[in-house]
Structures are given as structure tokens and as C-alpha cells.
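Sequence only, no structure available. Ideas?
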Amino acid sequence: MDLREVALVLIGGGTGAVARYYLSGVLPVYRSFPVGTLLVNSLASFLLGYLYGLIFWGLDVSRESRLFLGTGFCGGLSTFSTFSYETFSLIREGEYLTALLNIFANVLATIFLVFLGFVLARR
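Reply:
I predicted one. C-alpha cells follow.
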């Protein structure tokens, strides 16, 4: 593992996490709907899609930029961006059933794990 690459992911991830913290905190909850969370998940998904769209359409994006922006910043901003990109890739590749399974598995698993963590924290 290259320490320079690890540093890029670390700095990008920290920056993304701080952005998530700030954006989630400044936006109000609207009728119990977490607007800030929706914003950061949507923003991270858009940014990751944009980055990999640039690569897909032929722009030479360096490995360092991909690590800092994609893995680091978008990962720190929201891990949801990776899930969204992977689902989009499955759809783009015509793997509709797998994409649907990916959506249900991720959404149901994460909701279940939030519930499980909540219940276990109570003990």
C-alpha cells in the first residue's frame, strides 16, 4: 500500500466528512424529513457519478484525483455515493435484476442495521 495514496484518501475523506457535518447541520429538518442527509447523499452521488462519467467519456483523470475525490471526498461525504454509482453501473450494463437486488439489499440491510445498532445500544 502506497502511503501517498493513503494520505490522499485520508485528506479527501476528512474533507468530505467535514463537509457532510457542516451541510447536514445547517439545513433544517422539514416535517421530520432529514433534508441535510438527503442533500449530502445526493451531492456525493452526483459528484461520484460526474467523476466516473468524465472517466467513462474519455477524460484522463489521474489515479491520485480518483483516490482523493472519489474514494476520499465522496466516501467521506457519503458512502451512499458508492452504492448509487454501483447501482447505476449495473443499470448501464443492462443488469436490471441485479441492480434491483442491490437496491433492496442495501436499503433493507442498512435500515435493519440501524435498528439493530439502536436496539443493542439500549442494552
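The mean pLDDT is 88.
Hope that gets you unstuck.
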